[in-house]
Hints:
The protein is mainly alpha-helical and 121 residues long. It has a single domain (32-120), classed as Orthogonal Bundle (Arc Repressor Mutant, subunit A), CATH 1.10.10.10.
Amino acid sequence: xxxxxxxxxxxxxxxxxxxxxxxxxxxxxxxxxxxxxxxxxxxxxxxxxxxxxxxxxxxxxxxxxxxxxxxxxxxxxxxxxxxxxxxxxxxxxxxxxxxxxxxxxxxxxxxxxxxxxxxxx
Length: 121
């Protein structure tokens, strides 16, 4: 049986992400839902159900998966309270708060260029 190559596409991608700061940043907040979730948490702590109600089109499963990833990445803090029924709050970490001016700039860029892209198609 032939030996598997050490430089698989996944390991090459991981290496690139670690070497390229922009790719690293985009991987942390990329995807359809992460930046939306972070934006909703900008105004303060929210419970799972509040987040779900604020984000049109997201399923409970997808919200759960995205929150876990954001927590793992250190962008969202999850606090569980010892109450009956249990209460769980989600909030931005200080690292995520550093991103607020960046996503504001992305919003401004989108406002400026969204109509241009639509007209090209």
